[in-house]
Amino acid sequence: MRHLALPLVAFLASCGSVSPPSTPPDYSPPPPLATEGLMPVVVTAELPFDVAGSRAYAERTPILQFFAQSGTIAPPVDGEILQGTWGEPGAVRRLKLADGHYVIERIIKNQPEEFVYQIWVFTNEAGRGVEQIVGIQTYTPIGEDRTAFEWTYAVKPKNAITRIFIGRQLGELEAFLQQAVDGWAANAEQEVSAAAAQERR
């Protein structure tokens, strides 16, 4: 699956910039998956497919394509699988960001109605204050050929100080994520409409 991490560079940029590393970071064992102390942001959308169709749409048209550059948030531009087969639980990959930094993520769960991943290596400013990020994407049927998509993006701060700072930025992060999800869902509607128009010809 192509569910990609979103770095939290903007959250900790006030601490001063961190130069990109000269070489990519090596794999390091992840911390236990956080279940407490998380600061979640939740965004939603409705997709014009059943669950299977929605997952297929997510695979061929990643949400990442709909993120607009925002401040110092740099989108991923390349990825390298470090362990396993991507799409399977336990698989690990390193993502290179547009600014030369990297993050490392792994798949926790990949089921038809739920995709869970963890990010725990950050070479950018986020590494100063974020222990890990847990992402949960769910697909829930809500009618014939309709699916409710929900993305929980939960940040685990390293300490109480960074928790305060991150808390002040969650509204901006939510808007950033929702804008992309809205564009992604609108594109899905356009795809369905175009297919229907083609059938009528």
Keywords:
201 residues, alpha+beta, Alpha-D-Glucose-1,6-Bisphosphate, Chain A, domain 4, seven-stranded antiparallel beta sheet, 2 helices, 7 strands, 25% helix, globular, disordered N terminus
CATH superfamily of the domain at 43-72 and 110-194: START domain
CA radius of gyration is 17 Å
How many angstroms separate the termini?
34 Å
Strands across the major sheet, in which order? 1-7-6-5-4-3-2
Question: What overall geometry do the principal axes of the alpha carbons give?
Answer: globular
What does the main sheet amount to?
7 strands, antiparallel
Ranges where pLDDT stays below 50 over 5 or more residues in a row are 1-15
CATH architecture of the domain at 43-72 and 110-194: 2-Layer Sandwich
CATH topology of the domain at 43-72 and 110-194: Alpha-D-Glucose-1,6-Bisphosphate, Chain A, domain 4
Helix content: 25-40%
The CATH top-level class label of the domain at 43-72 and 110-194: Alpha Beta
| Estimated structural class | alpha+beta
Mean model confidence by pLDDT: 88
